[in-house]
Amino acid sequence: MSKNVVFLINKSEITAGTRGASLGPDAIMTAARKKGSYIFGENEVQKILNVNNFLDKPTSFPFGKRIDGLLNVYNELNDKVSAILNNNLFPFLLAADHGSAGGTIAGVKSAFPQKRLGVVWIDAHADIHTPYTTPSGNMHGMPLATALNIDNLECKTNEVDQETISFWNQLKQVGKITPKVNPEDIVYIGVRDTEAQENSIMDRLKIKNCQVSEVRSKGVAEIIKIVNERLKDCDIIYVSFDVDSMDPDLTSHGTGTPVDDGLTPQEAKEILIALAQNSKTICIEVVEVNPCLDEKENTMAEITLDIVEAITQTIKS
After folding, report:
1. What pLDDT shows up at residue 173?
2. Which residue blocks in the chain are alpha helix, DSSP H?
3. What's 37's DSSP letter?
4. CA nearest 151: which of 100, 201, 78, 204?
């Protein structure tokens, strides 16, 4: 599979609970310049609208913080990602936080409405909350729920106002296809920090989670076999990589919600290279590098750059 890569930069960090992820894409670019890597000169770079001005005023949506701004991001990503795919190019997203990934999925589905989509979600978190279940109100915990078109009312803990519900339903409808992915076509890798409501719906929907211990005991090649078997009936695959899937002791705490006992950078790199080698994989997203939280200068961005370079080389070769 040889395709030209387009880096799509999304600096909006309105769905995270901490600040600084908007600097993540630039931190990766800075790491490239420091290393003498010309990856961002050799490949096309596009940017989407930055809506971080929503952080400069209070949000009136406690169970879907800045959901009004996120709708703008979803719509923009739907347009941009689908346009890149329709030009037979490979969209490689470098995003601030994970909340926007539902917009990326919308764009993939808009480009290929008749194709069955598989999702590989490499993350410490399940990101399958809804406004009805969220303990924090932060939208970076909800993107998969928008793609699945679920509310998880069975586990409802919040009384959500009508305006939030309206925006939530609009998010799910972006691209005018719902659901965009079926639960059996999602595979988690490395998820290890979840709430009871998420565990309940993951069990109910029977979503596969390849835990870190499984990666360690079986090896990356076996995990890839499990993923491929699970997604064998899918026509196309989207891969979402949150850097907090990696162990902070082996990387840094340069991400919004680090969780111990994660993947090694080498395991993450091998998994992503193998997924990039799959001809069904048509879009990859990397999120949540936060240099403001990095106690080792720009280490998280440098490790992420190494992975991004390896993926890009694989896609283009």
Report:
1. 98
2. 24-35, 39-42, 67-86, 101-111, 143-148, 162-173, 196-205, 212-218, 220-230, 265-277, 299-316
3. -
4. 201
User: 235, 115 in Cβ contact below 8 A?
Assistant: yes
Which of 121, 175, 173, 180 lies closest to 147, judged by CA? 180
Tokens of 313: 């080389």
pTM: 0.98
Q: Which two tokens stand for residue 296?
A: 């080792």
Residue 117, H or E segment: strand 117-122
Residue with the two structure tokens 């069904």: 280
How far is it, in rounded angstroms, from Cα 26 to Cα 214?
A: 34
Is the Cα dihedral 234, 282, 68, 197 positive or negative?
positive
pLDDT along the chain (317 residues), means of 10: 93 97 98 98 97 97 98 98 98 98 98 98 98 98 98 98 98 98 98 97 98 98 98 98 98 97 98 98 98 97 98 97
Please give the pLDDT value at position 235: 98
pLDDT score at 135: 97
Question: Which residue shows structure tokens 């070769």?
Answer: 317
Cα separation, 174 vs 168, in Å, equals 10
The residue whose two tokens read 């106690």 is 295
What pLDDT shows up at residue 2? 85
Distance separating alpha carbons of residues 146 and 271, to the nearest angstrom: 26
Q: How many CB atoms neighbour CB 198 within 10 A?
A: 25
Nearest to 232 by CA among 278, 201, 282, 268: 278
Return the pLDDT at 1.
Answer: 64
Strand partners, 122: 189, 241
User: What is the spatial distance between Cα 64 and Cα 68, in angstroms, rounded to a whole number?
Assistant: 9
In this structure, what token pair is assigned to residue 62? 């406690």
Residue 94: what are its φ and ψ, rounded to 5°? -115, 105
